[in-house]
């Protein structure tokens, strides 16, 4: 049956240096369920190495978790890539790793903790995940699509690392699948404020770095099921799936 599903497609884990150490797979899954979310995506900075553990932690629960990554392009624009499988997400992760330089300084940026589905520490990521990849925004969007993913411009209403703040506009030829709004304004307001981009689907996500912020912003989608294929149909507004803009 077609019905509204509550989705939050931009959540960090303890792998992001700026993510709270309490952002572990089990804690994220529990809080997402507590907030009534049906579908979430894990989007750490320039990595998806905690996504598989979070997906595993959600097994036997009603929550669906998608693997994702929040890539910092060479223009310092944040683009979220969402995928149907860990393999597809890994293709992009390896591409990004090949174009990242520098080593993380935990004392300056924070720890980058890789964990398993039971929240045990597996390793500490050494790469400078907070850095920018030497990949253009056009290249990143194209690469996400080639891996079968969905490309979303993150928090376009934020000056720092938002596409509008960094580039001043959304390049017309850039084939973004959606624009994301932060928790600062509601979707209806955003579509008025950014009316020149109203032909794009708009999503709202929490960009949570702390447990309590999971679900602080979310989007209602009309879907048959909470999964990647249904999300794609909703973003295209096909087969009666779609974004519900007027409920919040
Ligand atoms: Zn961001
Ligand atoms: Zn983020």
Describe this structure as you would to a colleague.
The protein is an alpha/beta fold and 248 residues long. The protein has one domain: Alpha-Beta Barrel (TIM Barrel), CATH 3.20.20. Helices cover 26% and strands 23% of the residues. It is built from eight helices and eleven strands. The protein has helices spanning 25-34, 51-57, 86-98, 106-109, 137-146, 163-167, 187-193, 228-236, and strands spanning 3-11, 39-45, 64-72, 78-82, 113-115, 121-124, 150-153, 178-181, 202-204, 219-223, 242-244. The chain has a nine-stranded mixed beta sheet. It is globular. The structure holds zinc ion (2 copies). One zinc ion is lined by residues 70, 78, 154-155, 161.
Can you tell me the residue ranges where pLDDT is under 50 for at least 5 consecutive residues? none
| Assigned CATH architecture | Alpha-Beta Barrel
Helix content: 25-40%
Following the backbone from N to C, one meets helices and strands in this order, namely EHEHEEHHEEHEHEHEEHE
Largest sheet: 9 strands, mixed
**From the alpha-carbon coordinates, what is the Rg to the nearest angstrom?**
17 Å
Q: Indicate the overall shape.
A: globular
Structural class: alpha/beta
In the CATH hierarchy, the third-tier topology is known as: TIM Barrel
Number of domains: 1
The kinds of small molecule bound in this structure are:
zinc ion
CATH homologous superfamily (4th level) name: Metal-dependent hydrolases
What amount of the residues lies in strands? 15-25%
Number of helical elements: 8
What is the end-to-end distance? Answer: 22 Å
Strand runs, count: 11
Strand ordering within the main sheet:
9-8-7-4-3-2-1-10-11
Arithmetic mean pLDDT: 96
CATH class, anyone?
A: Alpha Beta
């Amino acid at each position: 049956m077609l019905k509204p599903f509550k989705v939050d497609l931009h959540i960090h884990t303890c792998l992001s240096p700026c993510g709270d150490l309490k952002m572990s797979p089990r804690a994220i899954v529990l809080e997402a369920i507590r907030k009534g979310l049906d579908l979430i995506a894990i989007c750490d900075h320039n990595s998806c190495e905690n996504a598989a553990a979070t997906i595993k932690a959600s097994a036997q629960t009603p929550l669906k978790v998608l693997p994702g990554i929040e890539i910092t392009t060479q223009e310092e624009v944040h683009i979220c890539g969402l995928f149907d499988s860990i393999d597809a997400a890994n293709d992009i992760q390896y591409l990004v790793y090949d174009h990242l330089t520098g080593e993380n300084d935990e004392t300056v940026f924070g720890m980058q903790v890789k964990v398993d589905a039971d929240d045990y520490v597996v390793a500490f990521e050494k790469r400078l995940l907070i850095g920018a990849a030497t990949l253009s925004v056009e290249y990143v969007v194209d690469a996400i699509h080639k891996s079968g993913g969905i490309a979303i411009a993150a928090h376009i209403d934020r000056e720092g690392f938002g596409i509008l703040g960094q580039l001043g506009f959304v390049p017309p030829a850039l084939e973004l699948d959606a624009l994301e709004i932060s928790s600062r304004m509601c979707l209806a307001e955003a579509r008025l404020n950014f009316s020149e981009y109203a032909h794009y689907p708009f999503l709202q996500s929490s960009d949570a770095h702390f447990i309590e912020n999971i679900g602080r912003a979310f989007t209602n989608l009309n879907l048959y099921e909470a999964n990647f294929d249904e999300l794609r149909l909703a973003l295209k507004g096909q087969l009666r799936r779609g974004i519900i803009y007027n409920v919040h």
